[in-house]
Every structure is written in structure tokens, then in C-alpha cells.
Amino acid sequence: MSIIQSKRTYALPAAGLPSQTERFADRAIFTNAYAFIPRTVMTDIVTSNLPFWEKTRLWVIARPLTGFSESFSHYIMEVSAGGGSDRPDDNINSEHVIFIVDGSIELKYEGMTHVLQPGSYAYLPAGLSWQIHNKTNKKAVFHWIRKRYIDVEGIDRPQAFITSDEEIIPVSMPDTNGVWQTSLFVDPFDMSHDMHVTIVTFQPGGVLPFAETHVMEHGLYVLQGRGAYYLNGDWREVEEGDYMWLRAFCPQACYAAGDRPFRYLLYKDVNRHMPLHL
Ligand code: UGY
Ligand code: MN
Fold this sequence. Notes:
278 residues, mainly beta, Jelly Rolls, 9-stranded antiparallel beta sheet, globular, binds (2S)-amino(carbamoylamino)ethanoic acid, binds manganese (II) ion
């Protein structure tokens, strides 16, 4: 299997609204173990708005849901020219990952302003004050993953940082000759982090060769390419712009198809004890 060095691209929601004459062919499904939200259902009429955000709409594609996936929310934010927020989230316990997929946006924290472009990645710890604005005349789109940070006595909260897809050298999974790689944005052994948001890359023909079944929850947004995903006994064809939302212990495997790498943004809760509700 050869490694394809193609330009990295990032999918966007379909937006708009299918016409009255289009044949119904949607693949969306919500099961006990996973939800599958295809790109085509991320239209104008399923967007939301948020307080203290100007000229912005969002697709909420995951939220804590009792008995399902409970640890995180995932938004796709579309900020029009001149939009943004000085008060993005009043919840001082939430930590954030922001991943830009279109346009350009200014992120401000600790007195510094950073200009983020497609592929830029920001980690913002719980309790940080930050602001975000689109100062351009084109829309900007970014993924915003929020999790309630679980503090541990004796471990400081992580620092904020900004990096990018380009800057991170992906790590090959053992014995895969680079056909299955992960771009790690934080050190997996850094116990100050309780979530990992990574990018997984499979070359066409590459496989996740067993039904991974684990306590961690997942959100998988397909940034590029296509493949087939095994989710709790079902095979689903997936392509760029599609989202998979998996509860704890949802069995999962996949193979990559097409002629470009199959890449997805992956959320995973990590590094903490299981709460015991007795
Ligand atoms: O890290 C993971 O759990 C990853 N291998 N899962 C996945 O890509 N579905
Ligand atoms: Mn997994």
C-alpha cells in the first residue's frame, strides 16, 4: 500500500436546503450505541444560535445525553464577516478545542491575538478568558469541542496552546507502515489533559482491523476522503463531512476507500478514574 501525499482539505456542512424535487436518500440514524449524522443533513434549518455571539450560527452535532454519550459537546460554528464573541462561554468549568476548517478568525487570550487559518488548532483550558472574532469579509468555520474539565488534586490545569495540523508529525500505529496514523496534539502521558482531540489518517485500503470496544466516548468528524465504518454490528459508508457519535463501549472498526487519505477529527475522553455513583 502506498502513502498518498495529497493536499489536506477540510469538509464543510452542506448548508442550504434540498429541493422539493430531490429524491429522499438520507442515511442519518440514531441507535442505542451510536448516531450517524451525514453531511447532507447539516442544512440551514437545523442550525442554532448562541447568546452573546454575533452573526454566528452553529450545528450542534453532539451534546451530553444521559445514558448515551455524556462527556462532551461538539459544535460546527459558522461565523459570518464581522461576527464573533467577547463572551463565548460562561461555563468556567469547560475546556475547549477549536479546529478551523474555513476562512480565518482571530482568537484572543492572555493579552495576545492569534490569527487562525484552516488546519489551526487551539486548546483553551477551563477558566481561561478568551474572545474570538472574524475580522475578514468572508465566513469562517470551526469545530468547537467542549468538555467539563475534571480537576485532579496535585495536577495543574493545562496551559492554552495553538498549533496546527501541518505542524504535527503524525505517529504511525504499530506495524502499519504508515497506512494508519494519528496526529497527536497533546502528549498522551500528560495527565493534566482529560481529553484528546486528534486527527486519524488512513491511506486508501488501510484498516482498523478489529472491533475496538472501549470505555472512551468518541465524536468522529470526517475531514477528508471516504471509507466504511463498523459501528456496533453495522457497516456504514462514510465520506467527508459526515459525523459519527459513539457512546462508551460502542464497537468500532473501519477501512479506507477512494483515492485520497481518509481523515477524521476524533474526540476521546481519557486519563481519569471512572466516577462511582453509589
Ligand atoms: O484512539 C482511538 O480510540 C481510535 N483508534 N478510535 C477510532 O479511530 N475509532
Ligand atoms: Mn476508538
